[in-house]
Predict the 3D structure of the following.
Amino acid sequence: MNLLSNEELTARLRQVGERRYHDKHPYHVRMHEGKLSQEQVRAWVANRFYYQKNIPVKDAIILSKLPTREERRRWIQRIVDHDGTTGNEGGIEAWIRLGEAVGIPREEMLDERHVLPAVRFAVDAYVNFCRNRPWLEAVASSLTELFAPGLISQRMAVFEQLYPWIQPDGLEYFRARLHQAPRDADHGLELVLRECENRRDQDRCIAALQFKCEVLWSLLDALSLAYPDTEKSR
Ligand SMILES: O=C(O)c1cc(C(=O)O)c2c(n1)C(=O)C(=O)c1cc(C(=O)O)[nH]c1-2
């Protein structure tokens, strides 16, 4: 099989998102139509917290495997973005505030009482994928971030307009991601395009991105099962 050009590989990666990114999942579609009940929105926020808190963990694993100081210098910013630093509380704290804005008390978020078993398995599978696979595949699995910014900006509008009961100051998390996610995606894509040496590497990167889409899809499958549509939310 021939090596794909950068344009072809980029197109193949984008195709994965067009087919399988979590914005196509019925739970997500209903969220963006304004049709989720308050309980369903709360469940989404509380379960996504388990994903959020594991992002810097998997990024620390990737960081430890990156071969050069230059790449580590860039990658480390992701950990800072989520864990925070002096003067910047970071994304995990912002997500806890999103929880408060939808009515989840901080301690309920932190003790993970709402996290569903299948969500835990899916997120742990993502972290383990980054731990066990070569670093380039782990980087490729982060490329769902290519598709996130458009979705996140839509989500901010949707939350403001269709879920007026959500306190607007809870949306800060999403605002920060609007500039962080494109920067991260550019770096990830640059690495994948530069470091794939043969078609096998390229196919493995495409498969890694498919796997990651399935992680996000599984989160929403679990939520759909545990929080089915009620007559009222339908
Ligand atoms: O709200 C979303 O739809 C969404 C999706 C994704 C994603 O596509 O993985 C991420 C995020 N948000 C996000 O906030 C985030 O920090 C993030 C990090 C990563 C990653 O895999 O490294 N994905 C995502």
